[in-house]
Design a protein that fits this description.
Elements (H helix, E strand, L loop, with lengths): L3 E5 L9 H10 L6 E5 L5 H6 L5 E4 L16 H6 L2 E6 L2 H6 L4 H13 L3 E6 L3 H5 L3 H12 L9 E5 L13 H19 L8 E4 L4 H8 L6 E4 L6 H13 L2
Parallel strand pairs: 1-2, 1-8, 2-3, 3-4, 4-5, 5-6, 6-7, 7-8
The chain binds 2-phosphoglycolic acid.
The site of 2-phosphoglycolic acid has 13 residues, from strand 8.
């Protein structure tokens, strides 16, 4: 299956940075992988209007279509301005905004309702890893935050060990392989044969220098990239690794 390289810009990026998105888009004219950028909300529309080879996504949405929820944005509002995928359950939101698995599940369902792809993030903390709880944490997060109807078009799972995000630390290759194989097994036993083609991304300190090795691991179908997605040159190195890894 073709790999997906998705950039998560977090709360970085002003309107001048649309030029970075345009450079990435131009580069993606002939790559053999899928590419997406999830900028902050205010940049989504212009990013969408000025690209043709990549997908534009968002980093969060509300569970409802509309309503008296000051400061919130619905999945429908995001798809209307061009978002084709929406990240839900990122560990920063689970921590900073107290998002539970139940909320993440409702948000995933909202993304499906709006016709977009939910990029559902899961991952263990360092303490959980050190106390051998990684697989049980992943199981619990998948059981409770993935929606009912998961298929390769409407859902991507992103495995992001919390301790690897923005730290420069990356798990051992065997640790990534074990987590991704566990996630694949869960998806197959829960959702059936179709789930074999649901993309499972790895996220956490992916950069040009480690992307090739990470993409060679079985059941790693791409990457969710934070810091290294902010500069087109850095991100293009990762895209090239994904494009060459088929
Ligand atoms: P990072 O972030 O690549 O900067 O570690 C990844 C993420 O938070 O999705």
């Amino acid at each position: 299956m073709s790999k997906l390289v998705a950039g998560n810009w977090k709360m970085f990026g002003d309107k001048n940075m649309i030029s970075e998105i345009k450079k990435i888009d131009q580069h993606c004219n002939e790559v053999r992988c899928e590419v997406a950028i999830c900028p902050p909300f205010p940049l989504i529309l212009s990013a969408y209007e000025q690209t043709k080879n990549i997908q534009i996504g968002a980093q969060n949405c509300h569970t409802d279509i509309n309503g008296a929820h000051t400061g919130e944005v619905s999945a429908e509002m995001l798809t209307e301005v061009g978002a084709q995928l929406i990240i839900v359950g990122h560990s920063e939101r689970r921590q900073d905004n107290y998002e539970s698995n139940d909320i993440v599940k409702l948000k995933s369902e909202a993304v499906h309702r709006a016709g977009a792809t939910a990029v559902v993030c899961i991952g263990e903390t360092l303490k959980e890893r050190e106390t051998d709880k990684t697989l049980s944490v992943l199981q619990e997060q998948m059981l409770n935050s993935l929606p009912k109807n998961v298929n390769p078009l409407n859902t991507v799972v992103a495995y992001e060990p919390v301790w690897a995000i923005g730290t420069g630390l990356v798990p051992e290759i065997d640790q990534i392989r074990a987590a991704h194989s566990f996630i694949r097994g869960f998806l197959a036993s829960t959702y059936g044969a179709e789930a074999h083609n649901v993309k499972i991304l790895y996220g956490g300190s992916v950069k040009g220098s480690n992307a090739k090795e990470i993409f060679s691991i079985s059941n790693v179908n791409g990457a969710l990239v934070g810091g290294a997605s902010l500069k087109s040159n850095d991100f293009i190195e990762i895209i090239t690794a994904a494009s060459n890894s088929i």
